[in-house]
């Protein structure tokens, strides 16, 4: 099953096109793309047995963030060994966790405003929680996942790393810095949802390429570690980390430029497309 947000409405993407859930369910489920995760079991049971109408054509530019109002967004740093190595850091003993504020969420296609000349890319698999998870063991963690989607953890590196105390969450939360989509794909759609091809390109040049099976902390382990501290709620998002190939890890460093298009893809889910455009200029003054 492929679930999306089409012009602000909960929508299923089928072989024939887009199906509006509120209309197809005769009002049993509302139009809110976030609220459905609190009804996840009922929704899956309905969708599995529903005689859906024929879908309609849609424009990918009309797709919004697949979960526009999550209660919590978790993001994991240094979760691929090759990315930790290119960052010059040791492999973490525990998942490094920060957040991306939800006003940074965006749909899968659109403009990315560049506030500085040091905006970097990080392609990521994003997990959507479907059932409340508290003290969940890794072997049971997939039972709490509604599906997965494609994400970008765009990062303004100057703000992120300003001394003396880095500002990861702020540096990664400018407007549009968290595009997700094009759909939440349920895990039953994959032969192995834990090992998917992932990557991104800029103007056709490959920048990142890897597999999610290379995660240091797998999706089940992330859910186990996070849920041991606090409840994970239906609709919560987990950005699971990025493989190597980010701009800050290159020599010389390489960041996004106005006029470039960045395309992020994950096998079996789809792609994001952002066109880099000028944004309101942001100045960061480093501590002396």
UniProtKB/TrEMBL annotation:
Transmembrane intervals? none
Question: Sorted alphabetically, which InterPro entries does this protein's record hold?
Answer: FAH, Fumarylacetoacetase-like_C, Fumarylacetoacetase_C_sf
Q: GO MF annotations for this entry?
A: hydrolase activity; isomerase activity; metal ion binding
Query: What Pfam family does this protein match (any one)?
Result: FAA_hydrolase
Q: In what residue span(s) does the Fumarylacetoacetase-like C-terminal domain sit?
A: 73-274
Asked if Lipid metabolism is a keyword of the record, the answer is no
**What are the entry keywords?**
Hydrolase, Metal-binding
**Signal peptide annotation:** none
Q: Which GO terms describe its biological process?
A: carboxylic acid metabolic process
Family, similarity comment: Belongs to the FAH family.
What's the protein here called? Fumarylacetoacetate hydrolase family protein
Q: Which organism is it from?
A: Gordonia otitidis (strain DSM 44809 / CCUG 52243 / JCM 12355 / NBRC 100426 / IFM 10032)
